[in-house]
Amino acid sequence: MLFTKLGLDPQIVRAVRDEGYETPTPIQAKAIPAIIEGRDLIGCAQTGTGKTAAFALPLLNRLRAGARGRLRALILTPTRELAQQVAEFVKVYGRHLHQRSAAIYGGVGYGPQESALRRGVDILVATPGRLLDHMGRGNVNFKNLEVLILDEADRMLDMGFIRDVRRIIKAIPARRQTLLFSATMPDEIRRLSKEILCDPISVEVAPRRAAPAQGVRQALLPVTTARKRDLLAHLVENEAKGQTLVFTRTKHGANKLARHLERRGHGVAVLHGNRSQAQRTRALDAFKKKRARVMVATDIAGRGIDVDGITHVVNYDLPQVPEDYVHRIGRTARAGATGDALSLVCPEDRKLVRAIESLIGCSIERRSVLDFAVGADAPPQSPAGNGRRFQKRSGSGQGGQRPAKRRSFGTRSKQNTGSGKVLPSPKVVSGWRGRASRRRAV
Ligand code: AMP
User: Among 76, 115, 150, 364, which has the minimal tally of Cβ within 10 Å of its Cβ?
Assistant: First the structure.
């Protein structure tokens, strides 16, 4: 399958080529023609498999004709960081067209957002809270809205957001195209989604309702609560030596853990909802640009964030909601790469582990880290001094799936910077990788 066969405008195909994409990913190949036809759609595919382009490309295609600056499409995301990122992708994919887009999210001043809205945009990417504020101030006119997209749709329709989303939906035209995308889609959310969709087509690429990305090697590391911090430091110093994203349950926990790692000499970025937007932006930027090797974050960083080259995700605390596990570990192994997801588990986490394993449909490898594994879930300690720090526990079900051959949706032959400059191919060219050029392009 080629992008040219999907019915997209040649200028859009040119933009994805600029990005180094050669062939559509499976979700793109299936969703784009249906969206171009005008169908409402629920799109479900693993993390990091190109869902943003799956909705952004046909959206740009639809809006390429007609008057400019009339606010014809609204994309809602659960976090500010994701709103920024999606808006960035929309600009990149639309770089040869003349549509205007803007991102609207909280934590920053209203002034620039109001000016952008006053000038007129075709596509608005927004978090619900700030959008409602702008609606309250009379800054948005939805009269011409044709398309509504919920990115991370199951999160947008869950308890935390549903009231805001309902208020927004009430304010937009009922006659519209509605698209929902996520890597996880629990049944109750699917049922609820019927309220806002009209005769939707369901496009599923994941083998199950919540399948982790194929290239993620998962492991559970049993440990007692008292020794978690030391185990994390041990991992960061001995195993997780690349870009490492650590998830904690609470903001306070994230701060404490970051201080602990900093005292041990590690460069740490911290991302959570109690930080100012300027601090959040700086933290993510430091992590993306590899000035900080470790980022400690709450679930705010769990959804959608696309950072190139995260080699390890560590669940310092397991998430309370099993779907969040799939999203968190999906921050690694993106765009056909591989990565490791290590979860520290205490005996009291047993129920959460069961819920996660039942959601993903297989058991996760238990791996004991010598000197740290204690407790009911821990495997028997091996004699010390055998030279191996990590041991597999036998009899742990299917064991850690090590699928991870790089999937190939084509081979990139060159990188175009978007400024007309063609760079030599990177060393690794197999697989559908295209991010390096995007980062330079924006
Ligand atoms: P997403 O799931 O939308 O966050 O995309 C994950 C990553 O895959 C991003 O870095 C995209 O640039 C990249 N990507 C998306 N579509 C393709 C494609 N068809 N070929 C190569 N890379 C892609």
Answer: 115
